[in-house]
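Our preliminary data section would be incomplete without showing what the modeling component actually yields. Below, a chain of 181 amino acids is followed by its predicted structure, encoded as tokens that our downstream tools consume directly.
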Amino acid sequence: MLDYYAAHGVKDTSLRTLAAGIGTSQRMLNYHFGSREAVLAAIIDAVAGAQADHIHTLFADEPDVFVAAQRNWQATADGAYRYGALWFELAAHAMRGEVYADDLAEVMVAAQLRAFSAVYERYTTIDHASDLARLTLAVGQGLLFQLLIDHDRPGADAAVAEFTEMVRRALPSRTGQHEPD
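Predicted structure:
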């Protein structure tokens, strides 16, 4: 299902159209999910649900926060080519107040803010960490949005590198890193 929606978008795809597209029956989709809205809720979980866990694990496993940040960007940007348009389409559904997209506020924003805040709290105050987390998420999502439109990966990568240096300068002594020469 996820690959079908990634390739075709959500639009007004019916369960019948989805079933034909993925090689099953509408009856099976109804049995397992009950409704189109439940299918879309499952898609939201699949697309966005693991992102905060990925952030937490990546930053827990890598002692250099800036190396972890670079790896996070690379993985996120690589995944955006496959699932990014679906991510932003579902975000628009949440913005329009679609009931099945209510969880997006949690999985697209709140969970990721908590994950980034936890990283930054190791190096700065809770309030500053919260501000940096929101800025990090906004910069990342904005660059992904642009990347999906203009396909300028080198430009997006350069912008991420610049943002990383801005954060590095804001936290050099707390992260154990030295200011660039």
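The longest helix spans residues 65-95. The two ends are 49 Å apart (CA to CA). Preliminary results of this kind motivate Aim 1 of the renewal.
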